[in-house]
Amino acid sequence: MVIIGASLATIALLSACASNTLDASTWKPIPTVSVKRSARHPGPYFSTLLVANINGYSVLGFGIPTSGGNIAPIQEISGVATQLNALISSIAVDSMGNIWTSQFGETYLQRYTDGSTGNASPDRVLITTGWDDLGVAVDSDGNVWASAAAADFSGTQAINEYDGYPLTPPIRTIEGSFLTNPWGMAFDTLGNLYVANRYGGNIGSILILSSSNGYVSPIAKIKGPNTQLQNPSQIAIDSSGRVIVSSYFPQGRVIVFNSGATGDATPSAVITTVHNPGGVAVDASGNIYVSEEVNNKIFEFAPDANGNASPLSTITGSNTTLDTPVTLTMSL
Questions:
Q1: What is the pLDDT, as a whole number, of residue 261?
Q2: Which residues contact 66 (CB under 8 A, 6 or more apart)?
Q3: What pLDDT score does 42 carry?
Q4: DSSP 30
Q5: pLDDT tens sequence across 287-327
Q6: What pLDDT, on the 0 to 100 scale, is given for residue 9?
Q7: Phi, psi values for residue 172, rounded to 5°
Q8: pLDDT reported for residue 6
Q9: pLDDT for position 200
Q10: How many CB atoms lie under 10 A from the CB of residue 115?
């Protein structure tokens, strides 16, 4: 008997049947394995691009991969119960898929559980008394970090670390003259925190903070004329450690640095396609996503994009409900 395309287990089973050697009392069926896709990414999607929709007072989610166009989001957190009643300044996702948001001029951070959509209430509201929060990031331990300015308008700048539970004071407060209007933040796989320092002189800088010195001050900076950084606002880090920065004023550009870049480093790529780039994010394949706030678009670029590169796709149109998409993050 010749069997084509069958597994070894199937061949053995059929051979036993043919030779009448199968013992029905001891035979057990071969187990099957089913693959269950996370509820976080429904349908054919492998990840979700989350958008802080600043003038829409909402959080939008678009399935990735995408062909772009005038597509509706697969997720939209909006409505009175969400308490998104101010301009959303930043968005982050923890390892469990929970979404954290900060809002301009507000002294609290909000968490929405994995899969939240519609008029969903936050399951946690973290009160950050005395601080107006701007950027938000979550580390591998689930602690929440917020870049902030003092609510008393004293001009004090800080980065605060919280354990993520309501009514608990910061675990750590980082202050110093090296902070000049910090906004976007991202962690690399080593636990280093990268901070977009918007007004470090006329150029701006990326601060690199590390647990090696308790995050008390930068262990390194990316700063100098060769970096082409001008008012950097948002940061994403890909799986290889590349640092992707949106630099929105006066010349909009997305700047990419190789892993380990410090000092007056020359970028490995500078994408100039996007006018006034806002948020940046990166997917598991290294594709780069950039929001264009003023024109309500999100561009997807290949990992090696450079210069006036053509996007792989563009999310745009009335069905998207995009309204000043200020920051992005990827829920993998």
A1: 97
A2: 49, 300, 313, 315
A3: 61
A4: P
A5: 999 999 999 999 999 999 999 999 999 999 999 999 999 99
A6: 38
A7: -150, 140
A8: 38
A9: 56
A10: 16
User: What tokens does 139 get?
Assistant: 């580390």
Report d(CA 310, CA 3) in Å as an integer: 50
Task: Kindly state the tokens that stand for 201.
Answer: 């002189």
Residue whose C-alpha is closest to residue 206's, from 287, 138, 260, 275: 260
Q: What is the CATH number of domain 8-331?
A: 2.120.10.30
CA dist 63 and 45 (Å) reads 5
- For 319, the 3-state DSSP assignment is helix
Q: Three-state SS for 212?
A: helix
Alpha-carbon distances of 217 from 12, 179, 185, 204, rounded to whole Å: 65, 9, 15, 17
Low-confidence ranges of the chain (pLDDT < 70): 1-43, 200-202, 250
* Rounded Cα gap, residues 143 and 130, in angstroms: 19
Q: Where are the domains of the chain?
A: 8-331
CA distance 19 to 30: 20
| Residues in Cβ contact with 202 at an 8 Å cutoff, skipping those fewer than 6 apart | 230
* Single-letter amino acid, residue 72: A
Place of tokens 């898929």: 97
Q: What backbone phi and psi angles, to 5 degrees, belong to 12?
A: -65, -40
Residue among 150, 149, 147 nearest 196 (CA):
147
